[in-house]
Amino acid sequence: MIFDDELLERCISCGFCLPACPTYALTGEEASSPRGRITLMRALETGQLEPDDPTLVEQSSFCLGCRACEPVCPAGVQYGNLLEQWRDHQWRGRDRPWLARVLMAVVARRWLLRLQGLVRRHARARGRAESLMLGCVERGLYPAVSRAALRIAPDLNVPANQGCCGALHAHNGESGRGAELARELGKRLPGTIVTTAGGCAAHLAAQLGRDRVKEFSEWLLERNAWPDGEVRVDGRRARVALQDSCHLRNGMGVTREPRELIKAVADYVELPNAGSCCGAAGTYSLLRPADSREVLAPKLAEIESAGVDYVVAVNPGCLRQLRQGLRGTPVKALHLAELLRLAGN
Ligand code: SF4
Ligand code: SF4
């Protein structure tokens, strides 16, 4: 058995999810839609299709894993779980993209993460039961985000010896290992885990329980703990848009909190499709760069016509995608923690 029967049977083939799916929007083909992929999964489960069937191979990788199909589904299909089970089977051993294999090997080794330096530099233990998780991508690429978060929330504990949360594994065909890494991290970070990465928050919440995990904006808003000042550009209040994190929005239902925080320090501008995927999608932008850019393109056009100074991300993968896409334009991409830090200056 590849899939959890109950999960696979839940789909009633109504098609409500089709307009929400970014890959269906790109191709207009049923096979690239959530309903079409569930039909493929059923064919794999019953043996009608072999795992090396070209459509199965292509669609298991073309899917962004953004889970935009979940909140719109009247039958409560847990598509994210189905995709994890599909990739566990489809991407076994050598069938897993080599780049995904390399990335998973790197982030699962804590000594490599320590080489990135930030854990030691930020490590501090104050006996509190609320810890800031230093995500793997953020540690390597955007240490300024962790520094900004700690300036805004100086009371958070930052234990040393942090590892990977396992989200990368869960989304790339190793969901068992992904769950194991989440449990290990849960033991190393006692009490509430606060994270600035929407993707990690959703994975940890699914593995450790929703009450153990707070995304940074949720945690700040609960405490009314944002800076008093405002972000200004050219003598006026800055105009700031948000790009939702797919897993934060579709997996945890967190949408209001980052918007409220932006409104507290700047003029908030809602992008027409702030909730749709930016194409970063974890490893997707590395594994399928051309498709990733195609998903991003209409979003860049929206950002340009919105006339904003900043676009804010709440996940490091989205931040990387937006920074690359906005290179050479007057709009800057920032993490929410960095924007709030600007307001606190
Ligand atoms: S996944 Fe949900 S919305 Fe999509 S076809 Fe199946 S039941 Fe309908
Ligand atoms: S996860 Fe995203 S890309 Fe994949 S089927 Fe659902 S909406 Fe489409």
Describe this structure in words.
By secondary structure, the chain is of the alpha/beta class. The chain has three domains: 91 residues, Fumarate Reductase Iron-sulfur Protein, Chain B, domain 2 (Orthogonal Bundle); 123 residues, no CATH class; 113 residues, Rossmann fold. It is 51% helix and 9% strand. It has a four-stranded parallel β-sheet with strand order 7-6-8-9. It has a three-stranded parallel β-sheet with strand order 1-2-3. Strand 8, helix 19 and strand 9 form a beta-alpha-beta unit. The longest helix is centred in the last third of the chain and has 18 residues. The protein starts with a helix and ends with a helix. One iron/sulfur cluster binds next to helix 2 and helix 3. Pfam families: CCG, Fer4_8.
In short:
With 345 residues, this protein is of the alpha/beta class. Helix content is 51%, strand content 9%. The protein has three domains: 5-95, Fumarate Reductase Iron-sulfur Protein, Chain B, domain 2, CATH 1.10.1060.10; 100-222, no CATH class; 232-344, 3-Layer(aba) Sandwich (Rossmann fold), CATH 3.40.50.
Radius of gyration: 20 Å
| Beta-strand fraction estimate | 5-15%
Series of H and E elements: HHHHHHHHEHHHHEHEHEEEHHEHHEHEH
The number of helical runs is: 20
**Structural domain count:** 3
Q: Which strand order spans the largest sheet, edge to edge or round the barrel?
A: 7-6-8-9
Number of E-type strands: 9
* Helix percentage: 40-55%
Oligomer: single chain
Poorly predicted ranges (pLDDT <50, ≥5 residues)? 117-121
